[in-house]
Design brief:
Shape of chain A: globular
Strand order of the largest sheet of chain B: 2-3-1-4-5-6
Distance between the termini of chain B: 46 Å
Structural class of chain B: alpha/beta
Mean pLDDT of chain B: 90
Number of domains of chain B: 2
Helix content of chain B: 40-55%
Strand order of the largest sheet of chain A: 1-2
Number of domains of chain A: 1
CATH superfamily of the largest domain in chain B: Response regulator
Strand content of chain B: 15-25%
Largest sheet of chain B: 6 strands, mixed
Radius of gyration of chain B: 21 Å
Oligomer: heterodimer
Low-confidence stretches of chain A: none
Low-confidence stretches of chain B: 1-19
Radius of gyration of chain A: 21 Å
Number of strands of chain B: 15
């Protein structure tokens, strides 16, 4: 190995690490607010990436139908809950509140995608399509269990992941797709060959992380989310609704998924089942970071990316083994040093 | 699934009851599950199989085993008990085929497999394969390498059974050619990056690189090699012979060479090639039914099973009538002594030692040119 190769590997590691960092941040965010370990986070990435790829060819992505089905299920559940309280007016209002935006988005996608209005419009449409899936998924799969233990929520999360992966095969097919880069062009720094898209990955990740820090530090909603994360009961006592914070956290996770997809889809081929392995590496990073601290998760994500790049060079057959085994010493160390004082369960 | 099986069984009953003398051929393919991309074109080809031979009608019953060896065994048991199968066809993948061949040997029923599998001795007696053995495909690549002065070959392949199989076959095929294979790198189907592996390959400066993968994931090494400015020859296996590979790899696929069954480029074959006429006919019929560019080489193995039936059943009929153990034994003997039976994947010449029957006419080399397969003389 010489310096050039090391530089290439570091570059590859940082780009992958940036994507894992986004996933890790989304996982930490959702876990802190709702105590759900969001395994379907990877599906948000693949669904967004594959939807973008479909839109690029002018065909309507299958995610439209998934959005409508999820919206219908959420509407039925909200309306059902309202009817049990014997308030039909509220039931109608809640159903409309769930259904109208989904139908409007679906109509917009159906009307605008065949016109092929360019990448910018496609990204907006894709975000409009995928981001609402977050809150709908929360309503359908997790809200009814909001007070259950972390383990039950994890099981629901695995179930949601399996269902979404299977639907992904039906909606997008078994073959992989790539999208054209947001920033084309490339240049040379010394021996290093840098593409515009890879700079965008790093830049966008940094911007998003900075934005999240501002959001949690300076805005009311951000502070409310932080409050629910720190102490759920206390947050409820001061009037922060758990359901709303759950939906917001899921919407943000889905939005981070869309950003990851826009960044990663031109760099790698996405398959309907790619989400799991990407998400799992983000999860490893989140765990190494302690599943509670954003800066630690980001640092761990970069470490995972670099570890992956270097192990693919030295021992490609054992790459995944090395990456996933790296979690073991961390868990061991944490279990030895922690005081087992978990606040819940 | 249950309804489908029940319906298929019912149809089989109706067909089988009136004329016991009809020849019963029973098929199990992996039309759903992970191997659906193989099983679907095979399933689509069933209607194109011959309806009668030497004045005898042939009844086909087909089942889906969902790429599950247990389901494949159930299907084959049904074939033998309910359909009184004279001949079995299937299945699409290695694990399902091994299961099918086991039952076939136990019940003394000949089976035409659609996957190139290695079998234990007792199963081997009753099993005949329609696809080419991997060693034949590897042989074509090694011939091209020797002819073009390749001395060092880099290897990047799946970290699974397919990669392992090719690694072993290539190690054997390269013996005595003076070509060294190094470095040997691995990747997984859903990897997001192969930068590390490709850097190692490029740093070793091999004359050529062999990519062992299938479908769209095969494009990843090509893209990474192109990005690093690798200019040597890139070889692929027949696993990459899908248009989706070219779609994803784009310009980086140009110039890649791979071995395929002749049916993939039937229209470009010289008129003297034994698979030309059949291959063109099959391509036309398949694409008329399933759309332009829909042909896959896997369906060709099913079509070849039909050609084998046409050639061997008349021989067996001379010895016995269908529906009996003697007929099945006679059919097995005929399958073992095929002589110049042409299919869309070359020519079959079987012997007791060779239940593939393929020779060098069963594979051609193609090069990717302008986003399409170009036959290489």
């Amino acid at each position: 190995m010489d310096v050039t190769i090391a530089l290439f590997l570091i570059q590859d590691g940082i780009i992958n690490g940036a994507i894992y960092a986004l996933l890790a941040v989304a996982l930490v965010l959702v876990f802190a607010v709702t105590r759900v370990i969001l395994i379907p986070q990877g599906e948000f990435v693949t669904f967004a990436g594959l939807s973008l790829a479909a839109m690029e060819t002018g065909s309507v992505p299958g995610a439209v139908w998934l959005l409508l089905v999820l919206a219908a299920a959420a509407a039925a559940m909200d309306a059902g809950a309202a009817l049990r309280e014997r308030s039909p007016a509220k039931a109608v209002r809640l159903a409309a509140w769930n259904l109208v935006p989904a139908i409007a988005i679906a109509a917009a996608v159906l009307a605008m995608v065949p016109l092929q209005l360019g990448l910018g419009v496609n990204i907006v449409l894709c975000a409009a399509l995928i981001v609402p899936m977050g809150p709908y998924l929360y309503r359908v799969a997790f809200q009814p269990l909001a007070d259950a233990s972390v383990l039950v929520l994890l099981i629901a999360s695995v179930g949601a992941h399996l269902a979404l992966t299977a639907l992904g095969l039906v909606l997008f097919g078994a073959e992989g797709y790539r999208t054209s880069p947001v920033v084309s062009g490339s240049f040379q720094i010394g021996p290093l060959f840098v593409t515009g898209q890879s700079l965008l990955v790093v830049g966008a990740t940094l911007a998003l992380l900075a934005g999240l820090a501002l959001f949690f530090g300076r805005t009311l909603i951000g502070k409310a989310l932080m409050a629910s994360a720190i102490n759920r009961r206390g947050a409820r006592l001061v009037g922060i609704p758990t359901m709303l914070s759950g939906r917001i956290a899921f919407a943000m996770a889905a939005a981070i998924g869309v950003v990851s997809a826009v960044l990663v889809a031109p760099l790698t081929t996405l398959y309907y089942d790619s989400g799991f392995i990407i998400g799992l590496k983000g999860f490893v990073a989140a765990i190494i970071g302690g599943l509670g601290a954003y800066p630690a998760a980001v640092a761990a994500a970069l470490a995972v990316g670099l570890l992956e790049a270097f192990s693919s060079f030295w021992a490609s057959a054992f790459k995944e083994v090395i990456v996933f085994a790296s979690i073991l010493p961390v868990l061991l160390w944490r279990s030895l040093t922690s005081t087992h004082g978990d606040e819940e369960d | 699934m249950k309804v489908k099986f029940a319906l298929a069984g019912l149809c089989g009953l109706f067909a089988a009851t009136p004329a016991l003398a009809d020849i019963s051929v029973c098929i199990t393919v992996s039309a759903t599950g992970p191997a659906a991309s193989l099983g679907v074109p095979e399933n689509n080809t069933i209607p194109m199989l011959p309806k009668e031979v030497a004045g005898e009608a042939i009844n086909y019953t087909s089942f889906d085993d969902a790429t599950d060896p247990t389901a494949a065994v159930k299907n084959v048991r049904k074939c033998i008990e309910e359909q009184k199968a004279d001949l079995l066809i299937g299945s699409s993948t290695t694990p399902t085929t091994i299961a099918v061949a086991g039952v076939a040997a136990e019940t003394k029923t000949p089976v035409l497999t659609l996957a190139p599998v290695g079998l234990p001795e007792e199963s081997e007696v009753w099993a005949f394969r329609t696809p080419q053995p991997v060693s034949q495909m590897a042989g074509a690549l090694v011939e091209h390498m020797t002819a073009n002065g390749v001395k060092t070959l880099g290897f990047i392949g799946y970290a699974d059974g397919y990669g392992e199989l090719w690694l072993n076959v290539m190690n054997k095929a390269l013996e005595g050619t003076g070509i060294t294979m190094e470095p040997i790198e691995r990747f997984a189907r859903n990897d997001t990056s192969v930068t590390g592996q490709v850097l190692k390959l490029v740093a070793a400066r091999p004359d050529a690189v062999l990519v062992v993968a299938s479908g769209t994931p095969a494009a990843l090494p090509n893209l990474a090699l192109a990005e690093r400015g690798y200019e040597g020859q890139i070889y692929h296996t027949h696993g990459s012979a899908s248009l989706d590979f070219i779609r994803v790899a784009g310009a980086s696929a140009e110039g890649s060479i791979l071995p395929v069954g002749p049916v993939v480029v039937a229209a470009q074959l010289p008129d003297s090639h034994p698979s030309k006429a059949l291959g063109v006919e099959y391509t036309k019929a398949y694409e008329a039914a399933h759309g332009e560019g829909s042909l896959s080489s896997f369906g060709g193995h099913m079509f070849d099973a039909g050609q084998i039936i046409l050639a061997t059943v008349p021989v067996a009929l001379e010895r016995s009538a269908p529906g009996s153990e003697e007929f099945r034994a006679a059919l097995r003997d005929a399958l073992e002594n095929m002589n110049e039976v042409a299919g869309v994947h070359g020519v079959f010449n079987t012997s007791p030692d060779d239940h593939y029957g393929h020779d060098e006419r069963s594979r051609v080399l193609v090069r990717v040119e302008n986003g399409a397969w170009k036959y290489m003389e």
